[in-house]
Amino acid sequence: MSPQNLNINSQNECNKSASEMLSDFILSEAKRLLLYSDKNIFEIAYSLFFKDNSHFTKYFKRLTGYTPSNYKKQ
């Protein structure tokens, strides 16, 4: 399936783009790992295929308004 067809199908079925669906999944998995695992932020970033911890932190903060460490403390 081409990226364009995937995007059209996801828009039709879920009213979200494919990238929005992926972002939602990554964010929910990051939140789950932060709250319910003993992994540190570096390990979580690596397990979600981020190249470095700072990129993961910026991504998470952009979507939630919190840094991963602040989210974990709440």
UniProtKB/TrEMBL annotation:
<protein>
    <recommendedName>
        <fullName>HTH araC/xylS-type domain-containing protein</fullName>
    </recommendedName>
</protein>
<dbReference type="GO" id="GO:0043565">
    <property type="term" value="F:sequence-specific DNA binding"/>
</dbReference>
<keyword id="KW-0238">DNA-binding</keyword>
<dbReference type="InterPro" id="IPR018060">
    <property type="entry name" value="HTH_AraC"/>
</dbReference>
<dbReference type="InterPro" id="IPR009057">
    <property type="entry name" value="Homeodomain-like_sf"/>
</dbReference>
<feature type="domain" description="HTH araC/xylS-type">
    <location>
        <begin position="1"/>
        <end position="74"/>
    </location>
</feature>
<dbReference type="GO" id="GO:0003700">
    <property type="term" value="F:DNA-binding transcription factor activity"/>
</dbReference>
<dbReference type="InterPro" id="IPR020449">
    <property type="entry name" value="Tscrpt_reg_AraC-type_HTH"/>
</dbReference>
<keyword id="KW-0804">Transcription</keyword>
<dbReference type="Pfam" id="PF12833">
    <property type="entry name" value="HTH_18"/>
</dbReference>
<keyword id="KW-0805">Transcription regulation</keyword>
